User: What shape does this take?
Amino acid sequence: MDVLVFIVSGTLAAATALIFAAMGELVAEKSGVLNLGIEGMMATGAAMGFVAVSLSGSYTVGFVAAAVLGCLLSLVHAVLTLVFRADQTASGLAIGILGLGLSSAIGKSYEGRTVAGLPELNLGPLSDIPVIGEMFFQQDIMVYLSIALIFATWYVLTRTKLGLVIRAIGESPENAHALGLKVRLIRAGCVGFGGAMAGIGGAYMSTAYTPLWAEGMIAGRGWIVVALTVFGTWIVPRVAFGAYLFGSMSLLELSIQAFGWNIPSQAMSVLPYVVTIIMLAVISRNLAFIRLNSPASLGAVLKIS
Amino acid sequence: MSRLVIESRPERTVWAPIQVSLLAVLLTCLGGSVLFMIYGVPPLKGLDAIFIDPLRTSYGVGEILLKMAPLLLIAQGLAIGFRAQIWNIGAEGQLIVGAIAATALAIQFQGTTSPLLLPAMIIAGMMGGMVWAGIAALLRAQFNANEILVTFMLTSVALQLLYYLVAGPMRDPSGFNFPQSIRFDAAAKFPILIEGTRVNASLFIGLVASLIAVIFVQRSLVSYKMSVGGIAPAAATYAGYSSKKAIWLALLISGGAAGMAGVGEVSGPLGMLQRNISPGYGYAGIIVAVLGGLHPIGIIFASALMALVYVGGDFALLSLGVPNAVTGIFQGMLLTFYLACSFLLTSRIRWIKPDALKQEAPAD
Assistant: This one.
């Protein structure tokens, strides 16, 4: 039972940062904008969130600051791709590099410091239920918010007019423009939302999951987030499932150490990357399936005047 | 009321790409000035430290040429793929695997004075980089797996492989458990090119690669076919140009070049394999390729500029105490501003005055 509790509660915590960033990226991609700079935005959010929490002592301030900075950075991407017609790949890489540089500059004098860590939310009797309580109800508030975000994203994208507009723009921005929809504005909004969520995801890493700042701590999670949207074929529940799958994988590394198995730690560290590569190959193999689900204009230069 | 309009340029001058690059550098300087002010450094002093100071001494120029070598090699390789819209962003990983492959030979033939060792290591490094990029090519060509994501993931794998090797199988047995290989023999190292500096013959390889790239880009049918595939994929398919061939070529060439750059590091300034073998040359190479307008000649200048930013960042750290994180921010700004400015290559922004507007309005 202890093992099960460890796996479930650990997975929920480990996947939270991925959930935030992946839901944000999914919304941006649904509107037709690929943002490859997620890694940079998560890193910037992580540094900003950590510094803000250190200075103010408030987690709310930390997460808001991280979201604002992540959003601002992603809006640079929005302006480059939507106004200046830059290639989405090149622009995403550019702000990714910019974000990594910013994160390093922001966090420089905080390197190796720690903060208290986000406390568990007290859910009273629920937390006291044996096993179930330990698995699900002894988490911090961001874990619950990330689950709420999954449902909210799913609801907005599939059940509301806004969702329909976003999807229409992602499928054919030219037609949406002809219909009088504000393509640039809505895309910018989606990209900005994605940046804010990536910032929050990054801040969760540095202030809650491992409450310390170290340069390079995002360690490729931003790229795994981009891969998750492909893995989940742009469908909310599947993307969320992918995030939990990857969350559980990062537990393996801890387990190996706990059980004292003699496997090089590097072999465990590469696991998420190797699995991502295999998953990408397996999922992308079916070209028709990918074409059916991916937003048709994803990655294309916006051609409206 | 006058109005701002965006219109496409009917003609393009040869100088336009150069103007765009220079404008991007200028804007980066402006952005950098703001950055220096945040750090409490007078902007001109900061810019002087980054862009001018390294050029004042022969040591500085030597360091620039030293760092230019890997950037040049990597960017020339990457640009070939970028023109075909094949994005290898994992040059860093290919560099690492190239360095590992070369180191394996240096360890195996320890003590030899054979002049063949270095050429063998260069070839091994190239093959290592090609194998690493080849995995991405295979997955993209056969399984349609996105090469951007795969090459990035492979970089993370390469990094862990490097950590494992320097801590175990490739560690110097008499190195007090430091995570590094043996120090390379003279036969396993590049000869110094310019006396009194650390500039070695790997810069020569980079320049030869640039020459080959010029010929390849401007004279070969293969390169033309790849470019068509990048600009108009449908037209390329219609003309019967194989996209799979383009994928393989782009990744193998760029992987091989990055692998050779890795040899240049371990057989050059480092003289051994260690955990930290590249300050992000693989990623900076992406910027160099784009900043150089994906043109072999432009890339030579762009690599010199990027090397200057690297060295200047170190100088600013030493003389002004500005953290070398500014190097990363400068690199990011260069690429960001370049992308924004290159919009001006195809379009121009014009103020239209009210009477002009009336004239241009169609008669109804």
The longest helix of chain B spans residues 117-143. The mean pLDDT of chain B is 90.
